[in-house]
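From the pipeline queue, job 12 of 40. The input is one protein chain; the requested action is below.

Action: predict structure.
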Amino acid sequence: MLEVVILGTGNIAQHLFDTLTTYNDITVVQVVGRNPKALAYFGEKSDIQTSFKKIKTADLYIIAVSDNALGDVSHYLHGKKGVIAHTTGSISMNILQEHKNHGVFYPLQTFTKNQKVNFKTVPLCIEANNNESYSLLKKLAEVLSDNVYDITSEQRKKLHLAAVFINNFSNYVYQIGNDICEENNLSFDILKPLILETAKKATLFNPETVQTGPGRRNDLETIDIHKEQIKNIEHLKIYNVMTDAILSKYGKKL
C-alpha cells in the first residue's frame, strides 16, 4: 500500500487526489492546505489539515502549490523519510535538495476544477535525485498514465515554455475570437469545428506544414481589411505581431 500526502488544494491537487483515490493500493492519508473551504473537497476520503506543522508520515509527499509557495512549504517536510516531489513545470528539482529523497512529478495538462481529465492520457514527466526516489515515482506514474517521460529540470523548463505558447496563448486568442463574435451578434459555436480541426492537424502533422491564412499566402489586401476592422488596440497589436511573424517565416514581411 502506497501512502501519499498531498500538500495543496488547487486544481492539480484536486485532479491528483481524484485519480489516486480510485486505486485500492494507494491511500491518500492526508491533504494539507491553509484554506478550510478548499480543504472540504477532500474531507470525505482523506484526513485534512490546515497546519503544515502537523503533516502525517507517508511514502510520498506531493507538493502541489503555487510556484512562489513551493520553497516555504518544502521546509515543513524537513526530516521526512518519504520521497518529496513537486508538480511544477518551471522550477528546478534542486529547490527540494534539502531533502534526502526528492524529485518531480509533473503532469503536463491544463486542469480546471470540476472538469474531469482522463489521467491515463496525461503526460507525466518525472525526475529524481536517486534511484530509490526515481523507482517510486516511475512506478506510480506508470500506474496513473500511459505516457511517462524522464525529463530533466532544464528540459522541463523548456517544455513548460512550449506549453504556455500552445495552451495559454492560444486560449487567449480564442478569447479574442469570442469577443469579436459577441460584439457582432455571432455565435462562438460556429468557430468550434475550426478549433477542433486546427488542434487535430497539429497532432497529426508538423505545424509548419499546415499553416494557412492570409499571412501564409502573402495576402496583403485581406490583411489590410482585417486591420481596418480591429478597433481594440491590444487586439490590433497581437494581430500585427502574429501576422508579421507568419509573413517573415514564409519569406515576406510587412
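Job complete. The helical segments are 11-20, 36-39, 70-75, 131-144, 153-183, 192-204, 220-229, 233-249.
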